[in-house]
Hints:
This protein is an alpha+beta fold. The chain has 8 helices and 9 strands.
Amino acid sequence: xxxxxxxxxxxxxxxxxxxxxxxxxxxxxxxxxxxxxxxxxxxxxxxxxxxxxxxxxxxxxxxxxxxxxxxxxxxxxxxxxxxxxxxxxxxxxxxxxxxxxxxxxxxxxxxxxxxxxxxxxxxxxxxxxxxxxxxxxxxxxxxxxxxxxxxxxxxxxxxxxxxxxxxxxxxxxxxxxxxxxxxxxxxxxxxxxxxxxxxxxxxxxxxxxxxxxxxxxxxxxxxxxxxxxxxxxxxxxxxxxxxxxxxxxxxxxxxxxxxxxxxxxxxxxxxxxxxxxxxxxxxxxxxxxxxxxxxxxxxxxxxxxxxxxxxxxxxxxxxxxxxxxxxxxxxxxxxxxxxxxxxxxxxxx
Length: 349
């Protein structure tokens, strides 16, 4: 629990959270029942909001305590960035409290915070960049959540709540991108995602989550973006993921029964893997992957495959958030859902 009583503040504590958030928990009617898909979607929202609370609480703590790496605020004053992130923290607490209130009203299991969160940031700039990536993912999955709610008579009243959160999270992203010296809006249409992709992505940053058992989603293998693509060089990306060690897809040019940990394919060799990129609201883009030559002679961990794939940035205008899925099917995939079904790992952000 946080010092302000979150995630279960008493009325006085909630009033203080609302004051900092500059707004309140919605006081309109909540659903009395929800269908299974809507429950899963709402639980995923609450699970993500818990992680966002932890992320912004860590940012506020690091800024407040003058932690190493948290003294350069990209031209802003310490007082200003503290005000920004204390406000955002309180707003995310309100989001989480509201999602759990709807679940409780519908008689569904509510979501508790995880025991541990770990974020890939050691500086203020990295922390804000990660916040931007997470928020972009949230905006993508809320598209799927709204569609799920709209299909159900019982959940349809929550569509407006989701649309309101989309606008609020979009306001946040504008500031985060400004800190990174980018234009506030990244794309004409935000990159789509779905609850399964979001669930997979979040597993990289959490552990010891008591509520995971209540969410009817199966976690897939994560993908780590080892080297993101850069405009200044040939556009490629390097990804790593854990292969299915019991029945791994055969790599081109190898015996399918070969132990791939003892006899790994040669760097630069073709593979049976493909990378599919999800960007904006466009159809997925799939490209073939090659086994990467690890830098400085480093070797991936046992059971881990490291691949290199083209990143057609300019050809497909892959700006803003792009999700990378790894699979053994070359596509083409007509929809996001088809690409997810055809993948063995992902997404990488």
